[in-house]
Amino acid sequence: MPCVDGGANGASAQTSPVHGPAGATVVLRISAADDHSKNSHECQAEYELVITAAGGSSATTSLLISDDDFGRKLAVRLDGFSQDGKRILGILSERGKHSSTVLFEYDITDGSVQLIDLNKTFAHIAIPKCSAALEAIGTTETDRIVLEQTSTPKCGTNTRWLLNPATAKVEQLGRGTSFLSLFQQKDDGR
What we know:
Elements: E1 11-14, E2 18-19, E3 25-34, E4 43-52, E5 58-68, E6 73-81, E7 87-95, E8 100-107, E9 113-117, H1 118-121, E10 132-139, E11 145-151, E12 159-164, E13 169-172, E14 180-181, E15 185-186
Antiparallel strand pairs: 1-3, 2-3, 2-15, 3-4, 4-5, 6-7, 7-8, 8-9, 10-11, 10-14, 11-12, 12-13
């Protein structure tokens, strides 16, 4: 969605609900509005995770608030849960004068959020003038995150990466390296 001021209630969008292995349901929500700053006229975007426990209680966690140009494109993707249901992974991205792609990792057990700037992490790997999309597709037993990079055909093949969340360092996923795919069940049963 574009970052615009939607009036008194702002503008908002959200992902389809994703169900975890322990029965929790999560939605990733984004809202935008004028930042009401006296010194600038920019658009504020807020990214929130709404988690509904198996018992029905609900909690909202703010993941990130950004303030930048009006009209920039805002996007969210909820990639899924770790197989043990303790971690939720997804991507927040903004396209405009100051583009950003941020991986979030939310830990259900302690409520902590880790944000990793994927533009910075992959800066030394990116091919100039090639666009690539990143998606979290799994985790390893050592708590690393498996990312899949899809590129346009002229820029090379799709590649999988191991991301160490503690250091934000990546390395190419070696052949034969095993990982657990993310758990992701949507409302339509997929």
